[in-house]
Design brief:
alpha+beta, 618 residues, seven-stranded mixed β-sheet
């Protein structure tokens, strides 16, 4: 008998249906030579400190650092978990072979490996690796099963991550709680949560310490078009009102002259397909969904077979998906008015390198719809919104670039002997406009209530200006002031976590920085939720702000390794390198142990008598 083990009962049922295992048993399904069972996510976890040594039961500085000689796993203390595990253990010990059908990722690999270890499985193990739960995908997956040994490095990376989180979290939390806590308050420290909290605290500090500076902007209206004075690079406007007023008066009665009209053709590619982070960002910006909400929604769409595997960090597809795209598009009946122009006359779909790139796809590809018609599935309003985003992005990937014309008009007002700031004899003005020639993929978001992606520039058509024309104008001077940095929203925080604190808009640069991002796409939502639960951050409308406890905790931490997003990002890169067999897991663990030992030593030697105040928990 072959035992298949999935990560959830619903996934197990989908697999059992394809395999013909239709007889219900207690905790598994059976038939056609298969027994299909399931976990409920993590059934096993690393042991608690006291299970390694009785000396580690009590929280004591003298017992730190706690570093087990060998890490062990245990069942979670839950009656339902214990009951299901007993069934799994019985099946595995009698099995002729096992097929690991866990989620195809680092965490899914770890979950199932631990269960098999705990169950004492001895028979050969194969791995099912699929990116969607459609019947076709499951059948293809079972035709291309691979030996579990092919995924050993994936397991080692997941194990190193778990050991790293345990070693740093257990030691640092006890260390800081005993050393700096008051009134039995637990100060939770985590490998990813603490640098994430530091990002929020540091941003709040930038806002609190910001000192606004006034400046004055000179504009003028010519032919119902507002032109803005062109300042020296780095200057927003005049640095004093006196200078601005002097310039205003100097040009008020003089004519405005157009000095150049420059038109440039431009094009804008369709937005990239979604990875998990970009989908969470978009849903937060458009609908106000939290990262965790979006993850739950896309997970549900995956389990309902209308979207592919969600926990991905690539926006590309492999070449072998291209032949399947017409079938996917044909099943998307609510969008046929957008799809028809792509397939009219039997023409082939455009195959962009920015979409189909094997070199940028490892375990999984970008999130796209499946061939399962969405009209056959019951979706909630929130699920429909998320699916709509994914569907439009996918369709847009086959549209041509949007073509536009960008116009830059320069003008000036001459005033001999002006000598105001950097201006001598004349003040230059500029206005830009953009005219859409072919909207192309933009038609997917033509309705105002659709979640259109951000575009390069707001469309603004200009009158037909001619070089040398001149006439009266209406100048104006407006007082402005510099604004502080914006607080993080969940969307901008996710981007900061993805790039280790560096905020970048360029997609290519962001891809390069992902290697050093903190956390995994699948865990970042949980990290943010943990910060809420610990009372370290709070929501202020749509923004995130640190609580007094969160601020004091970051102020207490002098060890940069604990709170630096950049340093934590380097650690994350090593975990990815372990997965690719480019870095040794044993070396990572040795470095981890040394780092934790150094942190403990540094904190124990701190004689500052610092503490988190008792009234900080508000």
């Amino acid at each position: 008998m072959i035992v298949c083990i999935a990560e959830k009962p619903s996934v197990a049922r989908d697999i059992a249906n394809v395999l013909g295992a239709k007889t219900e048993r207690g905790g598994y399904l059976e038939g056609n030579g298969y027994q299909v069972t399931w976990t409920f996510g993590h059934l096993c976890e690393l042991k608690e400190p006291a299970e390694y040594s009785p000396m580690w039961k009590a929280w004591s500085l003298s017992q730190l650092p706690m570093i087990p000689q060998r890490f062990g796993i245990r069942l979670k203390a839950d009656k339902g978990v214990e009951r299901q595990f007993a069934i799994i253990q019985q099946l595995m010990q009698a099995a002729d072979g096992i097929i690991n059908c866990g989620d195809a990722g680092q965490e899914g690999e770890l979950i199932q490996r631990w269960v098999m270890q705990k169950a004492g499985a001895k028979c050969p193990v194969q791995r099912l690796w699929i990116s969607s739960l459609t019947e076709e995908a499951i059948r293809e997956g079972f035709q291309t099963l691979r030996p579990q040994d092919d995924y050993q490095s994936l397991y080692e990376a997941g194990l190193c991550r778990a050991i790293g989180d345990w070693t740093l979290g257990m030691n640092a939390t006890r260390l800081y709680t005993i050393k700096y806590g008051t009134n039995r308050q637990v100060l939770s420290i985590g490998r990813v949560q603490t640098p994430t909290l530091a990002l929020i605290v540091n941003r709040q500090r930038e806002i609190d310490n910001f000192k606004p500076e006034k400046y004055w902007v000179l504009t003028t209206v010519y032919r119902d078009t507002t032109f803005t004075a062109v300042m020296e690079e780095g200057d927003r406007g005049f640095r004093s009102e006196e200078q601005g007023q002097k310039a205003l008066e100097a040009i008020r009665q003089l004519p405005f002259t157009v000095t150049s009209v420059e038109k440039k053709a431009g094009k804008e590619s369709p937005p990239r397909l979604f990875d998990l982070t970009s989908l969470q960002v978009e849903c937060n910006k458009r609908f106000g969904y939290s990262a965790d909400q979006t993850l739950q929604l896309i997970q549900s769409l995956y389990e309902k077979k209308v979207a592919t595997y969600p926990r991905v960090d690539t926006t590309c597809l492999p070449d072998d998906v291209y032949p399947k795209c017409p079938q996917i598009l044909a099943a998307m009946t609510p969008y046929q008015n957008f799809i028809a122009p792509l397939t009219d006359g039997g023409k082939a779909l455009e195959k962009r390198k920015t979409v189909f790139d094997n070199s940028k796809v490892t375990d999984h590809h970008a999130i796209i719809p499946t061939p399962t018609p969405v009209t056959t599935v019951q979706l909630s309003v929130m699920e429909k919104r998320v699916y709509d985003l994914i569907a439009r992005r996918f369709i847009g990937a086959f549209y041509p670039d949007c073509r536009f014309e960008k116009t830059t008009v320069m003008g000036e007002v001459r005033s001999e002997g002006l000598h105001i700031g950097s201006f001598d004899d004349f003040i230059p003005f500029r206005v830009t406009g953009k005219r859409i020639i072919d909207p192309a993929w933009h038609i997917l978001w033509e309705k105002k209530d659709s979640a259109a992606p951000d575009t390069q520039d707001e469309e603004r058509s200009l009158p037909a200006f001619r070089k040398g024309e001149s006439g009266p104008h209406q100048p104006n001077l407006a007082e402005k002031q510099t604004t502080p940095p914006k607080p993080y929203t969940e969307a901008t925080l996710l981007r900061a976590m993805e790039t280790a604190g560096r905020m970048v808009e360029d997609d290519e640069l962001r891809d390069a920085l992902k290697e050093n991002g903190i956390g995994r796409p699948s865990t970042r939502a949980a990290i943010i939720e943990t910060l809420f639960k610990r009372n370290y951050i709070r929501r202020v409308r749509t923004s995130l702000a640190p609580t007094p406890t969160g601020i004091q905790l970051i102020d207490l931490i002098h060890e940069e390794l604990l709170k630096s997003a950049e340093l934590t990002g380097i650690w994350e890169r090593k975990l990815r390198q372990i997965e690719r067999r480019e870095y040794d897991a044993a070396t990572f663990i040795a470095e981890l142990k040394q780092m934790v030992t150094d942190i403990v030593t540094a904190v124990l030697n701190d004689q500052s008598n610092r503490h988190v105040s008792a009234d900080a928990k508000q």
